[in-house]
Amino acid sequence: xxxxxxxxxxxxxxxxxxxxxxxxxxxxxxxxxxxxxxxxxxxxxxxxxxxxxxxxxxxxxxxxxxxxxxxxxxxxxxxxxxxxxxxxxxxxxxxxxxxxxxxxxxxxxxxxxxxxxxxxxxxxxxxxxxxxxxxxxxxxxxxxxxxxxxxxxxxxxxxxxxxxxxxxxxxxxxxxxxxxxxxxxxxxxxxxxxxxxxxxxxxxxxxxxxxxxxxxxxxxxxxxxxxxxxxxxxxxxxxxxxxxxxxxxxxxxxxxxxxxxxxxxxxxxxxxxxxxxxxxxxxxxxxxxxxxxxxxxxxxxxxxxxxxxxxxxxxxxxxxxxxxxxxxxxxxxxxxxxxxxxxxxxxxxxxxxxxxxxxxxxxxxxxxxxxxxxxxxxxxxxxxxxxxxxxxxxxxxxxxxxxxxxxxx
Length: 409
Hints:
This protein has 409 residues and is α/β, with parallel strands linked by helices. Helices cover 42% and strands 14% of the residues. It is built from 18 helices and ten strands. Strand 5 (186-189), helix 9 (193-204) and strand 6 form a beta-alpha-beta unit. Helix 5 (95-105) packs across helix 7 (137-156), helix 6 (117-131) packs antiparallel against helix 7 (137-156) and helix 8 (166-177) crosses helix 9. The radius of gyration is 29 Å and the shape is globular. It starts with a strand and ends in a 9-residue tail after the last helix.
């Protein structure tokens, strides 16, 4: 039995071809299922597909060096001709295939040497193959040994001393080029895993105005993922103004439309927004016990000058600083938030007391009872879009929210 590997990566193929040959998780499952169900007339008995941003590799156990069969498999999976793929492929057999997989898992064959993502991607590839019964005893042992080797390389050598990815290196470069990254508007083209890592790396460096676009197929964002649920935003004023303002329309229309050159997609976005914010950056403005950060400390609150201002009678200036912070949330956005609650300091005695509080089960029962009433109320209006009071439009409000006839004005 032979172990064979066929693939292409960032050194052998252009990005346009790698994108066309990329396997999504669903495509991996479908392709491996063909082998497991016996739909492939070939000498391949085991198969594992490793597909990342920078490489597409197929590992197989076969009774011969069946590189031609692997080329045909890759061509058929994506509808790309073998003649177009062939010049960019590399091929390894037996010990060369084993050695190559070990180098990949250790991060030695990556675009960024030692990058940590590849080890998780190899582990995921093995899990997908196992799920479709495509990884037998030979590839199971090979990939487990490769994963173990990758872990040892990162713990016993200096390759992971300064772990980096393409995304983190790009973010570091942007930070060096742009003097004030917090004030910059950053545009990321692409909507895959690398784009998500880039957003995370940029946020760690202080960027808060990030626009993500591109990708062949638009994907739902956080407000669509919160559909029929709760979207919680902590430290509300710390989000960029543009980020908050673009929420106004989805809060009104309950949908989000994303446009691409090939067309537009509309995602549901009927969510309940809950946000939390401090009265000032340090959080102590108006507190009954602790004053806002006093002058002379290194705290980040701009109200550290408040005590000096108050001593000098400059109360208007102190108030202006508070107002400036709070006005990061615009009036039109505040108008769309129905309930505003100020939470005062809670005494330690209340927090540590033994008072019996309402259990989650009781709260759930009350919520469910209210939901049942609303469901019965809207059961005969002929619209599945209205399931609770919050979904009512003007017509339903006029129908169900009439004041009693004996109500006085």
